[in-house]
Here is the input.
Amino acid sequence: MAEPAAPRPTTAAAWIGQGALYMLFALFIGVFSTWPAYRHLPADQALIKLSFTHNGKRVSECRQLSPAELAKLPPNMRAPMQCPRERVPVVVELDIDGVQSVRHSASPSGLSKDGASAVYRRLPVAAGQHRITVRLKDSPGPAAFDYSRDESVTLKPAQVLVIDFDAEKGGITLR
Amino acid sequence: MDPAGSLRSRGLAAFEGLERVFDAAFGSALNPLRHLGALGFLCFWLLAVSGIYLYAALDTSVGGAWRSVDELSREQRYLGGLLRSVHRYAADAFVIVTLAHLVRELLLGRYAGFRRFSWLTGVPLPLFVFACGIGGFWLNWDQLGQFSALATAEFLDWLPFFASPLTRNFLDAASVSDRLFSLFVFVHLGVPLLLLFGLWFHIQRIARADVFPPRALAIGTLGALLAVALAAPVMSQAPADLSIMPGPLALDWFLLFAHPLAYATSPGLVWALFCATLLFLLALPFLPRPAPPAVAKVDPDNCNGCRRCFEDCPYAAITMGPHPNGKAGRQLARVDADLCASCGICVGSCPSSTPFRSGARLLTGIDMPQLPIDALRRRLEEGLAALRGERRIVVIGCDHCAPVDRLAGGDVTTLSLICTGMLPPSFVEYALRGGASGVLVTGCEEGACAYRLGTRWTKERLDGAREPHLRASVPRERLATAWLPAGDDRALAAALDEFRRGHG
Ligand code: HEM
Ligand code: SF4
Ligand code: SF4
Here is the structure.
């Protein structure tokens, strides 16, 4: 049975072509698996990360129900104390060198708004000295901020400064 | 034509151009573009084998991971170091071949009808490939891993799912615990297992799936990966240090391109792109399209239950069940209409499809309603009767390959089938006995059959290596075959000319 047509890759040119295509494949992988280099933060910058998870206070205190109010409730729900589960949003402000950079009200998580509030912000700044002012409010009502911290920091290029909240360490922390 | 359609046809033309370049160098049977799925499997196995060695050497603690991997590269350059590099480059190759496979199937329009299952089970696979690949960078906990882990956390935090941001796990060295690190390891071992399961699922509806590339192609690909591994061994970047943002990083753009993209635009935009692409790919098989052709139909009176069609169907669309005539042990073929590609290959495998059978109307065990075997025999008889001269050539071809019908006239009559695999070999003998001086059987090149196995089965049947075979008494010098690039009229005409020269 004759089998004409359909050239078979037996010529030298085909072998060279095959080698060239394998080389191209290898080169393609070799090159783009490391190049071009990626620089996330310009060389003269540092990064401030504002990050916390913190429980705001309850929207209101627990309250003793009056006998009249209790009587109106179905018998199986007559708890003498009523405690709201909902928490207030946590408000945070960050000034860098006296300029407000963040003002954020972090809503409590969870369907009944009884979880922690979380914030995560990344702020690239020029390396060098900066005055950092952080204020945080976690209580209901129009009162002033519950916590604040004011500090001067010197940041090296590429350094990461983390602003967090840790009640055990006295509130706002910088590290 | 609609803009999307014309975009697709231009994309297809470009891809076919590329395929021809590869054909010229590799020949169609070894053309890597025709084995992209199989190359994906090869990458998977390379990753699994090299990965086992790396895992044995990995210290799965935050403190020890970097050193254990770095030592591998420095102290075992030609074993651990080489395997590490192969592991990385095979992952890159996996991304390339997977995406190329996706694009190819997309351009060929292989997402609807009987291919819907293969398409829909294919769409999630690149996600697994990326999830395994990206997670791998975290394990050696160098500055690239640090960057990627943090970028991934920031990307995921954009979604409103996490009560406590994932990024808090990477605020400083103290936040990264050995437990978190164990989670990394778990992901990097668990997702590949999911991927393997997904791959198995993906090829369920494909009979004799091409899951391993031809040996020469496998060796060539492995050679290319080893060459990169030797020329550019993968080395760790500086150990992770969460108190700094790493400087310039040698980034793996194949696997990690989404991080820079999210920083250059926004996580929201990358999420939107991602979801839009996913939705588009998942919706494709459900778009309205022309009614599909009729599927194969079994005739119980002419099916003897020999299982040949069951063996040959490229899409596992045939099952065997008890024959309704009730004879003990007798079986009957059954076609699942959702899986049937309407290729007709089963007609070519049925022993009842012989034109020598008597009866005014030729019946067979399994037939294509749109092109029944009886019509084929009549067309062949009429075509031969119309030829006058000494030389009478029958050219048999297929609708997907080079179009044979344009050759009809003069000393030639033609028979175009749905797929050349539809040809019962006895038709060749029937043509020669019926007055043809020669028969030229044409079809797609090996590896290029629109229905995967048509060319392979036809070759084997004509060579006598597969049932039903062409009888040995048929004079082989009066038969020729030509396996051609799809749509290539010139190659077809050349094949015919050469055949004529050989047949005076
Ligand atoms: C890890 C990635 C993947 C691997 C290793 C893989 C592997 C394979 C293999 C081995 C085949 C059988 C090919 C044959 O025997 O002719 C196949 C077929 C197919 N694949 Fe994939 N695949 C992958 C991802 C995808 C993706 C992402 C898509 C598209 C969304 C896809 C769509 C298809 C289709 C439509 C077929 C059927 C082709 C036909 O009917 O001729 N695959 N794949
Ligand atoms: S027409 Fe093709 S896909 Fe359908 S049953 Fe026959 S061989 Fe299988
Ligand atoms: S090849 Fe023909 S005879 Fe054999 S099982 Fe299939 S339909 Fe029946």
Q: What stands out?
A: The helical segments of chain A are 12-32, 67-72. Confidence is low (pLDDT under 50) at residues 2-7 of chain A.
